[in-house]
Amino acid sequence: MSSGQLRVMGIDPGLTRCGVGVVEGAVGRPLSMVHVDVLRTPADLDVARRLGLLAEGMEEAIARHRPEAVAIERVFSQHNVRTVMGTAQASGVAMAVAARCGIGVHLHTPSEVKAAVTGSGRADKAQVGQMVTRILRLPQAPKPADAADALAIAICHVWRGGAQQRIAEALAKVSR
Fold first, then answer.
1. Which of 18, 27, 117, 153 measures 20 to 30 Å from 142, CA to CA?
2. Cα(9)–Cα(120) distance, rounded to whole angstroms?
3. Is residue 165, in this structure, part of any structural domain at all?
4. Catalytic sites, residue numbers
5. Which residue has the higher pLDDT, 28 or 163?
6. CB neighbours of 137 closer than 8 A, spacing ≥ 6?
7. What is the CATH number of the domain that holds 145?
8. Is the whole-model pTM more than 0.85?
9. What is the pLDDT of residues 153-168, one digit of tens each?
């Protein structure tokens, strides 16, 4: 990778469908999609085995694509407690896998991701998919929505995390 480039794995956590997308780029430069997938687990397996399958899929993606950062959509309270539990468990697995691999973990709220990608924190899934397609210059929107969401999370981190990193570096230079 050239100087200033950042490779980020975005994860849209879910127990049944977990989006995993890898994006490479830098603030102010075109981004490119490196990888996108949706890890799926069967609902009839026990939760521990499902989480194990997610961990295996994430470990494989990290080993293959070597991201420098992992960005995960922050779990927020939903009306369905059962859904939020599975999402939180999948998110915890993603954090643990990244930590075991020595990769920094960054959390972004759904509204931060939507605002970064579409300009509106209230954008719907179709708008996010359309903008991911445009930003990454893809022939069509990634399907299902979990795939597009994972890429959106990675894009958000390249743009927001990259800018935050540059600010931190500049402040560090000034304080020396």
1. 27
2. 22
3. yes
4. 12, 73, 146
5. 28
6. 30, 32
7. 3.30.420.10
8. yes
9. 999 999 997 556 655 5
